[in-house]
Amino acid sequence: GLAAPPPGESGGSTTPNIPTFGFLFDIDGVLVRGKTPISAAKKAFQKLVNSQGQFLVPVVFVTNAGNCLRQKKADQLSHILGVQISQDQVVMSHSPLRMFKRYHDKCVLVSGQGPLLDIAQYLGFCQPITIEILRETYPLLDMVDHDRRPKVLHLPGVDLPKIEAVVLFGEPVRWETNLQLIIDVLLTGGCPGKPYHQASYPHIPVLACNMDLMWMAEAQSPRFGHGTFMVCLENIYKKITGKELKYEALMGKPSELTYHYAEYLIRMQAAQRHWKEPIQTLYAIGDNLMTDIYGANLYNRYLEEKNSRKGSKGRIQAKVAAGTRSATISQDDELDHTWQNELAPATATNCRSVLVCTGVYNPHTEVPSDTRESITETVFHGHRDFRFDPALVEPDHIVPDADAAVDLIYQLENFAPNQDIRTF
């Protein structure tokens, strides 16, 4: 609950307990492993709320999961952590798609699992089509599984509208079906019932959420994530056409878009409380060097660039430094502009990365004695379109778990949560 304070109680810089920092929590590997809560997380959250259950500091959950609606994720978190979480505190990997209004009225193919049509419509898409709808319309396309091949061959009675973009929400269940049909859509310029067409390059736009190669569930070692599915798609496309698969946009951590959106939600929480001091420092707590840490450090670099050279020139250079090959600068700048309009510019001055040891990161295996070795491409688990920069995978702090992270941050910020006096 983020209720507004009673009149006359809106704190200001004179009140000692008005925070100028906020938390960005990853979920998998930090708060839970699969469906199992990590015990330190519950302890951490007791320190983040007062006796009425109100947050003492702005908190946003930034997850690369994309298989459900924000409200469902908020309900799961409330249950796990024993505190009331609202959907306005949750950033899913697909949340930034709300900003891509130019695709909302187009017919888009969506890939992933969970209530995909509900998610797409919630984000603003008017004409989403699932892989399932596609294979029912064109039953001859899905031929790998002999048991699922159509018994009677008939031509489709209806033609679907031309598909104008592909949105990858997360890893699907039947990879071979999704890989085949997405390739069909790309190679036919959005008309998968027709034969492949040489001229359909550059292909129709592809937007992808969540580039995680792996994630940590209950198993002893990490499991395939959506990034692994994307590696398959990119390589199949290149093998067939000899050309690179291009992304119109990449969302989810470590993409800058995601951190912009998360910071906007942090600002909204502070505004609802009528806290006068701007939020200056974001603390991103995660378990994955290639997504949580890389993303937080990349956003920190963006904030530093923005503050040292205000104006579009600095913005473009920050983009280039981030090495996003997937989008040209002009397109990128236009994208950034959409963001500025939607969310207003960032006010934070820095974003600190805090690594916990309860998930993907394993302190015993990940740090080679010779750090030069880690600079080779072979250990870069990040996405193809993010250039590997060793400085970006160095966390500002390493702590055992989420509870230790909260203690450390309170100490760094000199913040003494006086939980029972209502400071707001």
UniProtKB/TrEMBL annotation:
GO cellular component: mitochondrion
GO molecular function, one term: hydrolase activity
Family statement: Belongs to the HAD-like hydrolase superfamily.
Lineage: Eukaryota, Metazoa, Chordata, Craniata, Vertebrata
Superkingdom: Eukaryota
Keywords for the protein's UniProt record, in alphabetical order: Hydrolase, Signal
Official protein name in the record: Haloacid dehalogenase-like hydrolase domain-containing 5
SUPFAM superfamilies according to UniProt: HAD-like
Cross-referenced InterPro entries: CDP-alcohol_PTase-I, HAD-like_sf, HAD-SF_hydro_IIA, HAD-SF_hydro_IIA_CECR5, HAD_sf
